[in-house]
């Protein structure tokens, strides 16, 4: 592949460097009363429309990875069929679910990760970070298989200027881990909490929760402080001090508290709806990420371009977009991954949120 053909790729990937305001994804995990685990996340990108699409990948589909020198990296063939959500190009799947019930997702991790340097002599065993989700979904069924697969490959940036990323993986049993590559070493962390955002590292985010030990759901009790009577203005005063900005540490804290205080739903479908409602709180309106001397993107409603919820046990992946708030579902059980053809379909044919006018009878 000629170098000039890599330009569209860089437009998408390098936004993580030149538009740090954009990379603000938030992930949560809820479990229904019937034992179904639902993992959900947002994907934010404030710079431009990501032209996202869903991709159906059948068993036996072969892909070759991009490297800094072109499309000459590792060849990998899907043992398991999967459905993924791609950004900018159909090869760059950032979230997905395979037919074995393994979910995988990519989150930006700027300034804290460091991959191994690209070695052209090992390019046939090298994969780009933006294609690791595809490789894992096609190759693995369990977390142990994910760890083994990662141990045997080199993961690199297509362009050394672009941001690093980190990943979260969940298998059908509900076992969830985080993968971060720091100081050129891959580190897996168990994630029983099920919350995930961006930088700093995952262990730091967990430690930072201790700064909010005073928070609790509900209302703070009234107090008589040396003759001065104090009472809360309204409900929810137990969460006074909960950070409300859009930085990754603040979103991690909010997600942890919203998730932990959410009443358990009886069914998987009810839990899916609950995930979308919680993640409404993390939608980033266009404008707050731009300075006074910057021009916002006027053809986008929000930096939160799409939101997903994944049911690994029932093999269903749900999503909605900034242009279509209706929750849509892809049921992997309805796809014959042995016979299905590879396909990539853009999310929204109309880039405008619909408005329905109600007719009132006189």
Task: Describe the fold and architecture.
This protein has helices at residues 7-13, 15-18, 132-139, 143-151, 202-208, 248-261, 268-279, and strands spanning 27-31, 37-44, 53-57, 62-64, 75-77, 82-86, 93-98, 103-108, 126-128, 154-156, 165-170, 176-182, 185-190, 223-225, 228-230, 304-311, 316-321, 328-331, 343-346. The protein is an alpha+beta fold and 362 residues long. It has an eight-stranded antiparallel sheet, covered by helices on one side. It has one domain (3-346): Penicillin V Acylase, Chain A (4-Layer Sandwich). The longest helix has 14 residues, at 248-261. Helix content is 17%, strand content 26%.
Outline the secondary-structure elements:
Layout: H1 7-13, H2 15-18, E1 27-31, E2 37-44, E3 53-57, E4 62-64, E5 75-77, E6 82-86, E7 93-98, E8 103-108, E9 126-128, H3 132-139, H4 143-151, E10 154-156, E11 165-170, E12 176-182, E13 185-190, H5 202-208, E14 223-225, E15 228-230, H6 248-261, H7 268-279, E16 304-311, E17 316-321, E18 328-331, E19 343-346
Parallel strand pairs: 9-10
Antiparallel strand pairs: 1-2, 2-16, 3-6, 3-19, 4-5, 6-7, 7-8, 8-11, 11-12, 12-13, 14-15, 16-17, 17-18
